[in-house]
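[09:14] KT: can someone run the structure on this one? pasting the chain below
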Amino acid sequence: MAVLAVGLWIDLSEKDDSGPPAEVRSVSDAKDETVRVSSDIFDAAGAKGKMTEPGPFTRDCTGSGSGSGKNYRVFHFWSIWDAPIQDLKQGMENLREKLPGKGWSIRSYGPDTSKSRSLELIADLGRKKFTVMIHLYDESKNSDPQAPESILSVALNSACYQALEGESVDS
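[09:31] RB: done, structure tokens below
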């Protein structure tokens, strides 16, 4: 599922990167800001549960892998899980209500186009140039004992930046 999510997300977030990037920025500063933005999203959700641990990583702006150029984006994928579905649903509602007050512009909110029609929120943070795609995967009605757990899944990515001279753009 992660590979599919990454491929889907890169397609969704691609912008016209044929011109110069918006900003020259150190990779560590861009990753630090991405963590702060992710934390703000987590706090706005207010859902209590376990949170996945992987931190942000970089990819070049074409999506062909990290380290192949000077232009990069920062991605941060994480989820809240091991929580009652009602808490996750409330977390999604909290995000829909609170993100605009934090500078986010909600691009869409409602069922996605998947077979499961999962609830999806897509928003842009213009002043910091981030896009987020959040899904609520509700498995509460799935009676299969092998069914996946319900989760609130977050995929955050930055604008395209140019690395500082001599800096490596590695994940």
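[09:33] KT: thanks! The longest helix spans residues 27-45.
[09:34] RB: yep, looked fine to me
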